[in-house]
Specification:
mainly alpha, Rhopdopsin 7-helix transmembrane proteins, GPCR_Rhodpsn, lysophosphatidic acid receptor activity, transmembrane, LPA_rcpt_EDG4
Length: 348
């Protein structure tokens, strides 16, 4: 029976995998944490704004926006998980218990899996609505809810499995270098799953593109609106390129190093770039808000309304405070002007 090392320290597993565990803050650690905190705060604020917009605007109370809201919730969770990582990285990693390390890793894995799975769910629902020529408001709510539940079940499964079984605490020869407590097979499966999601998204959006282009072309032949046809086709191409391009740019580098580490590539220097590629994957949670929500005209109007309301409340609160203090200090001097008519408060 293989020996298990449940009572060992984090340093024991890092030494076993050959990953350096620093005892002081290096310049690289400071740069990564500074960038990570900045990205995390932006992710939190942006996705909170998306959730507030969907909750406050009744036009968004439709099934397809449930998925966009779920994407924002998953990305918000990713921002919290990455923020937790930034406060428990560098020299602080050595002070983590095994449970604390698995909690740190599990939060990241669960949130990022939920985000990627929701991207696929949005693509599938867009495909169904386009092929069935169905309005987003007519999509079955029950199916959307089941999709959301399925997303989180899969995310929680992948996030919790490493702490309970898919680790290398009882098989040190299977430990990965990037995540020294996890099995290399887990990293390989996670990378291949993300790659499969991307290929499915490519297939779905490609089919949507050719289907819509064919329909618009047929309509253009009857209505003779070739400029509008070109405009619609170009807009569709731009949307597909932005969606798939954002996914490729943010996720491909991380998937490649995960797969290389999972396959046990000894000559690959994955540790030199892992932190930056993880930061790039986290940045996808910020990009998602821009790609899936900010390109919606109604969503942008809702954003402006919410931000204007916040600014107005702040300015109103400050002006009220200033006015009340002015009245307290000089109320006997401004009751009446010389002509005997009362003054009018310009703030009303």
């Amino acid at each position: 029976m293989s020996q298990c090392y449940y009572n060992e320290t984090i340093g024991f597993f890092y030494n076993n995998s050959g990953k350096e565990l620093s005892s002081h803050w290096r310049p690289k650690d400071v740069v990564v944490v500074a960038l990570g905190l900045t990205v995390s705060v932006l992710v939190l604020l942006t996705n909170l704004l998306v959730i507030a917009a969907i909750a406050s605007n009744r036009r968004f109370h439709q099934p397809i926006y449930y998925l966009l809201g779920n994407l924002a919730a998953a990305d918000l969770f990713a921002g919290v998980a990455y923020l937790f990582l930034m406060f428990h990285t560098g020299p602080r990693t050595a002070h983590l218990s095994l449970k604390g390390w698995f909690l740190r890793q599990g939060l990241l894995d669960t949130s990022l899996t939920a985000s990627v799975a929701t991207l696929l769910a949005i693509a599938v629902e867009r495909h169904r609505s386009v092929m069935a020529v169905q309005l987003h408001s007519r999509l079955p709510r029950g199916r959307i809810v089941m999709l959301i539940v399925g997303v989180w079940v899969a995310a929680l499964g992948l996030g919790l499995l490493p702490a309970h079984s898919w680790h290398c605490l009882c098989a040190l020869d299977r430990c990965s270098r990037m995540a020294p407590l996890l099995s290399r097979t887990y990293l390989a499966v996670w990378a291949l799953s993300s790659l499969l999601v991307f290929l499915l998204m490519v297939a779905v959006y490609t089919r949507i593109f050719f289907y819509v282009r064919r329909r618009v072309h047929r309509m253009a032949e009857h209505v003779s609106c070739h400029p509008r046809y070109r405009e619609t086709t170009f807009s569709l191409v731009k949307t597909v390129v932005i969606i798939l391009g954002a996914f490729v740019v943010c996720w491909t580098p991380g998937q490649v190093v995960l797969l290389l580490d999972g396959l046990g590539c000894k000559s690959c220097n994955v540790l030199a770039v892992e932190k930056y590629f993880l930061l790039l994957a986290e940045a996808n949670s910020l990009v998602n808000a821009a790609v899936y929500s900010c390109r919606d005209a109604e969503m942008r109007r809702t954003f402006r309304r919410l931000l204007c309301c916040l600014c107005l409340r702040r300015s109103t609160h400050e002006s009220t405070r200033d006015t009340s203090s002015a009245r307290t200090g000089a109320s006997t001097r401004i009751m009446l002007p010389e002509n005997g008519h009362p003054l009018m408060d310009s703030t009303l």
